[in-house]
Amino acid sequence: MSNRKANMQRPTSDSTADEAGYWDSRLRSPDCTDVDRASFAKWRDASPENREAFERLQSILAGLRHHMARADVRALRDSALNAQKRGTPARRLFAAAAAIAGLALATVFWAQLPDHFRRAPLSESVAMAQMLVGSQRATIYETGTGQRWTRTLQDGSSVELNAKTRIKVVFTRATRNVELLYGQALFHVAHDTGRPFVVRAADREITAVGTQFDVRLDSTSVRVTLIEGKVKVSRIYLTPGQQLVARLPGAHKKTDSNSEGNALVRTIDVAKVTGWRDGRIFLEDLTLTDAVAEMNRHSPVQITVADPQIAQLHVNGMFRAGEQEAFVTALEQYFPIAAEDRGDSEIILSLRKKTDRQAVPALR
């Protein structure tokens, strides 16, 4: 009965298939907005055909990932690569498909796929086409001020990006490589012993297979926090609840009994490290300059430390992302700091005049 129903599945029109391909590509895009997601949901729910087309597309993507090790699919990939090297019409056909955002996989490739795939619509995303032909083209994902989002990668792994974060992803049949260019990212790595998942941040290389970890790169250090599983950071292995802090060249180095070179390994409160996922910012013994930089990542209202006399004050506490006024009010209460609003998007911090400049307690 189930097979008969599957065979009676109504065909998907080309226009609907193209729309499904567009929405798959759009939802994977790093600049996808809440408005885009709402528009997609409206399109998907507008008709059973739309919903079925999108679900079939996801099934195709999952099927290709699952079957990439099959000899016939690998042969198809190798054939496509050879065609590219020879500069044949097949290569030009694929290039054209990619150029129009990958909404249609070249027919010459599609016709060679097993029947299970040929029953599906031709429309596909760039990610699918690149995976099929083994492209090593890098994909950039980036968040702006106040933005946080999650993306699912080709292998089923996912990455959550904090505000003002940029990563570069290059996946091939043999490798899974990600470079954290700046910011903070939490990785949920799909298990694949044949393809280690490698994240590079500055001069550090983090290798994992089926694990969950957080990586932060700022102007002075790389911080790797292991949540579950096991990772190797260069030559150092971490266990869950441990954090490696590696000072960047030129940054002030800390020494500790658990340090190796310019890397310090310590036990950490994972909930504080990953609090950014639900909008909580934990500031632990940061200079005012660094604390302000962290708060500024999450709000269009930018705070400026205008007086070097207060720049090195040390700040501790938990604040909500984007709540700049509450943060500034707390600073004024605990420190000899005066805040001045300049327009709607800037707050200037300076040393408060005519005040007792005795040591004041750190903000907690």
Spell out the key features of this protein.
364 residues, Jelly Rolls, 3 domains, disordered N terminus, 14-stranded mixed beta sheet, Phage tail protein beta-alpha-beta fold, 12 helices, alpha+beta, 19 strands, single chain, three-stranded mixed beta sheet
Structure description:
With 364 residues, the chain is of the alpha+beta class. The protein folds into three domains: 2-133, no CATH class; 139-273, Sandwich (Jelly Rolls); 279-351, Phage tail protein beta-alpha-beta fold (3-Layer(bab) Sandwich). The chain is built from twelve helices and 19 strands. The strands form three sheets. Strands 1, 2, 3, 4, 5, 6, 7, 8, 9, 10, 11, 12, 13 and 14 form a 14-stranded mixed β-sheet that branches. The protein has a three-stranded mixed β-sheet with strand order 16-19-18. It has a two-stranded antiparallel sheet with strand order 15-17. Helix 5 crosses helix 6 (89-99). Residues 1-9, 87-135, 253-260 and 356-364 have low confidence and may be disordered.
